[in-house]
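In this supplementary section we document a worked example of the pipeline. Step one takes a protein sequence of length 142 as its only input; no multiple sequence alignment statistics are reported here. Step two produces a three-dimensional model, which step three serialises into structure tokens for compact storage. The input and output of this example are shown verbatim.
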Amino acid sequence: MPFGRPCSRDTIRGILSSTTKKTVTPLWSVEFFEDEDDGCPVQDFLDDLDKPRRAKVVAVVALLGEHGPNLPFPYSSQVRGKIRELRTQYGKERYRVLYFGAPARVFVLLHALEKSTEKIPEGDIKTAEARMKKYLKQLEGD
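The serialised model returned by step three reads:
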């Protein structure tokens, strides 16, 4: 390969697949949902946590960015429709971040909560679904 020749994704994928048996998944980006009405709710949730709890939640968000849709249970699981949850705990406290995979390899963090019941409350799921619809509508407007 001559020096200075631009690399294409296909060339890089070919090199990676020929040198390893594992499929290499490029990193996904992770964004916070944000709008005029709700502000940035997941960031606000994280800001309200103390440092050790915030570190646990941020660590699972980082795993999502690293592993993308291949992030396995118990770190990620299906909630309803396109909505999924990131799962972590600190002691007996269970934390959830509801998110979805948007176009262009982007995960959008929609809603966060400390889970105190067996199932995620319906109101929290509906909040995440409404924010997902807002996000997708904003994308169409761009």
